[in-house]
Every structure is written in structure tokens, then in C-alpha cells.
Amino acid sequence: MSHDATQHPIPDVTTNPFDDDKLREECAVFGIFGTEDAAAHTALGLHALQHRGQEASGIVTYDGEEFRAHRALGQVGEVFGRQQVMERLKGSAAIGHNRYSTTGDPMVRNTQPLFADFEFGGLAVSHNGNLTNAVHLRRELVHGGAIFQSTTDTEVIIHLLAQAKGGVTDRLTEALRRVEGAYSLVCLTRKKLIGVRDPLGVRPLVLGKLGGAYMLASETCAFDIIGAEKVRDVEAGEMIVIDDEGVHSTFPFPRLKTRFCIFEYVYFSRPDSVVEDKSVYEARTAIGRELAREKPIEADVIVPIPDSGVPSAIGYAEQSGVPFQYGIIRNHYVGRTFIEPTDEIRNLGVKLKHNANRQVVEGKRIVLVDDSIVRGTTSRKIVEMMRHAGATEVHMCIASPPTTYSCFYGVDTPERDKLLAAKYSLEEMRTLIGCDSLTFISMDGLYRAVGLAGRDAARPQYCDACFSGEYPIPLTDQERQPGKSAQLSLLREQAR
Length: 496
Ligand code: SF4
Hints:
Layout: E1 24-25, E2 27-33, H1 38-48, E3 56-62, E4 67-73, H2 76-80, H3 83-88, E5 93-99, E6 114-118, E7 121-131, H4 134-143, H5 154-163, H6 168-178, E8 181-188, E9 193-197, E10 206-210, E11 213-217, H7 221-224, E12 229-233, E13 239-243, E14 246-250, E15 260-261, H8 263-268, E16 274-275, E17 278-279, H9 280-294, E18 301-304, H10 310-320, E19 328-330, H11 343-346, E20 354-356, H12 358-361, E21 365-370, H13 377-388, E22 393-398, E23 411-412, H14 420-423, H15 426-433, E24 437-440, H16 443-449, E25 462-463, H17 465-468, H18 476-480, H19 486-495
Parallel strand pairs: 15-25, 18-21, 21-22, 22-24
Antiparallel strand pairs: 1-23, 2-5, 2-11, 3-4, 3-5, 6-7, 7-8, 8-9, 9-13, 10-11, 10-12, 13-14, 16-17, 19-20
């Protein structure tokens, strides 16, 4: 599909300094069982996972007598920075959650962990991912008399649990057999910490150990911060139960070929994490090397768009022999509280976050390396900035294939008609961004970089739906009411 680029210019949304034109990873989960001060460990784990969600944060603990909870909008430091808050969260078991809303409004009632009392006692749940039949199930549940407190898809699981029979793990199994979509869950009961990954393992979940305590987290960087060790990845379709007896594993769902999200390697996960037994940093540098092999460019310097483009740019420089240099400096202190007082200030746009390092780029032919292009808004500003700083040629290399489809598995993607690559040809995109050449890594190149022989060799090995449009899990709600925002608006409508 192609449109006339001159008729449909890129919307200039970079006047919003916080819009860095990235896909937003959904959420982070963390859980720990068997240590004093479980809440402090959880807060540190959530702090390390802040990149997966900055909108709200919450912790629920169990102290042997009662569950205690604190949830609020804001980043981990703001939410758990006060001593009184942490002192209240007593207990040797805890779970936590960082939220970036993919489903549901950014309000406190949607902040996780969610908690409910059941016949078997209390249960708190934190969810990373997105259910693709949540609206459908919610309608059924509401019809049957269920009263929802939030607009999140996760609450559907709570209601399904209430209807199911047996002990907590039987109920969880029965409930999860009815949901479709991506989920990595951690749950806390009076006696157990439970972790579950959906049958395709779309979102990550890892098991760790610190002394006698076990923990579950979205990424290994949450273990590093508290000096814990990774034990292993929770497998796709696996349920892990941690109690006083130790760790128990079952596979209550049909075993399927896994489809881990390939975008975790491209952008979402922290480069110092090891996901699915692969170092994210190494995967990203390998993507850079592949890019350089696929598109060698005569240039003087390789410049990353910081921070996410750095490992791929290092890989590109290694492979090409062209020096890597910081030609763009990122200001890390652009906070959400920045006030935009006048149009003039607002029009500074991307410069609030990035500045050209003139010494590096002046008079040079540069290759800019970035992880992805979503709407193209930041890319254009950065190319312009490089030219103003004296770059004689600006080539752009992207460490992922063109993002042409929305994600429905827990990543905040714009609707398809806002995705640059869904609307324009490669040449039109190049013109709109204003660079001398524009290259995306091929799908096969990306697969090779993450250690597989190419997408078609033994496909499918990953979820790559935002590049290919081949969705590995049914999009039940979308099929009934198409449109990226349909799910959210339906949930809102039902919540009224
Ligand atoms: Fe990841 Fe893209 Fe699949 Fe979403 S659609 S899970 S972002 S690969």
C-alpha cells in the first residue's frame, strides 16, 4: 500500500518533547517468596524494570496474617520513595507491577497488582501482556452478573477464577484455558507465589534465586539489582508454584511451538538482560552486524540514536570498520513535569531530548542507526539536526524490518494508519524523513541475528506480527469490532 508522500506529510507530533516515537512496552511483573523485607526487594526489582512501564506502580505483600497493598500513579521512586509506605508493606512474600496502559485507562483503579478475596483466600495478580478476547469474555461475565471494578483485561482473569472450581492452581488453569492472548502472570496467595506464561510464551518471564528465596520477573536485570541469580526462563505454557516446599512446575496447557516476541530483542528488553537464554545486548550488536552486511555504506562515522540504537550501531561499526562515535547526545533529565510555556519552546521538539555533537558530525558522511521507525516523527527531526550540524550525507539504518502492523499482545502501537511503513513505500519514507538513504534490516537478517537460520528455515520461531501481519494468536475482539482502539473503547463503554 502506498500513498503520495507529499499529500500526506508526517504529522509533526515531535513538538511534544515526550513523544520519542517508540513503541511502548506494556508492563513489568515481579514476585518474591521467602525473604524478609519482600517489599523492598520488589521495589528494587520494579525499579530495574522501569523501562517496561512508567505510568503506575504497585506492590502487594502477605505478612502471614494479612495482605497489604500500595498502588499509585507515577514511577517506582515516587510511588515507593517514602519510608512510611515501605514500612507498611510487611511480609516475606510480595508481588509488584509497573504499568504502561495497553488496555484500560491510566487511573489508579487500573493499577496492578489487582487483588480479590476468593473461597480459598486472597489472591493478588500482576499481568504483563494483553488478552485478545477480553472484551468478549467480559461481556459474557457481565451478562452473568459479574461487576467489574476496573477497565483492565486482567480483571477478566479474576472473574474467571471466581467462577472456576477447586484449589487455586486448578482454578487458575481453568480460567486461563478460556483466555486468548499474551500473558506472563505472577500471583500471590497466602501460601504460594505462582508464575504462568501463555502457551506461546509471547512475553518473557524468568525464575531467579537469592539465598533461600525464589523470585519471578519480566527480565533478569531485576535479579541483578538485588544480587540474585537467574535460575531459568519460565517455559511457554508452564505454571511455576513456589511455596515453603520449594519450586514445582507443571504444564497445564497444550504444548505449542513457542512464539516469543522478537521485538523484545530489538527494543523492549534492557540490553543487560538475558531473555530466552540470549543476551539482549549480543542480539542487538548482531543485528547491527547483519545490517552492515546487508547494506554496506561508504561513510566516515557510525552514529547511534541514543539510547536504544547504541548496541546495533556498535555492531554496524564493528562489521563495517567505520568508527562508532556519539554524534548525538541524549539529555536523560527531561522529566514528565517539564512545562511547555510557549509555542516557541514547544517547537524545540526533539531537541529537548537530543542534541547534535557537532565535533563528530561536521563535514562527515554519517550512518545513523536506530532500532525502529514507528511514525517517523523523531527520525525526521534528527536527520534535520544532523544536517544543521554540518553532516554532508545522512544515511539511516534501522535495526528492525518496517513496522507495518499494530501489536495486540501487550505493546502500545499506534493504529495501522499511523504507522509510516504501513502507508508509504521505502522511497517515500526516505523522502519524508529527508535522509540520503534508508535501510531496514530484512526479516531473514533479523532472524539470523537472533541465532536462527532465517525466518523461513523452521518458521515460525518468534512472534513477528508487527512486521509480517501474521498474528499467532486469534484476535477475537478485533474480528468482532476491528480497530486498534476498539478494545479500549469497548472496555470503557462497559465500565460506565
Ligand atoms: Fe512483539 Fe510485534 Fe508480536 Fe507485538 S506483534 S508481540 S511487538 S513481535
